[in-house]
Predict the 3D structure of the following.
Amino acid sequence: MNPGDTFEILSAASITGEFSDILLGEGFEAGLTINLTYHADRIILDVSALSGDANLDGVVESLDLNVIEQHLGGVGGFREGDLDGDGDIDGFDFAVWQANFGLSLNGTGQVTVTNASVPEPVSGIALFFIFGCVRVRNSG
């Protein structure tokens, strides 16, 4: 499963009530959360992740910045550092990471805030600007 995935898990002529408990199987990544939406005739499961948590460990930290730096200038999905969902890994993804740095999921899927200062990722920003300049020069 990936953040942004949506599944229709049940469809019927009429649905009443809600599940009393949801058991996630082994291998369900700690950083993923699910939300069930109940409709009159179907139940939809949406998969999401803590914004900025590229490695899906449930914490927005420097390890997530490493993922962005490894794929900076490339294309990919959430797990490659595309945190804004536009298909590429760039400075906007860094901004999402920076805005959410220090957030974590507790055991119930609720977001908690850790008092932490955002580290200055000099190398990542420098690489972004260097790549951007090289790319502009080669295109014209």
Residues 6-49 form one domain.
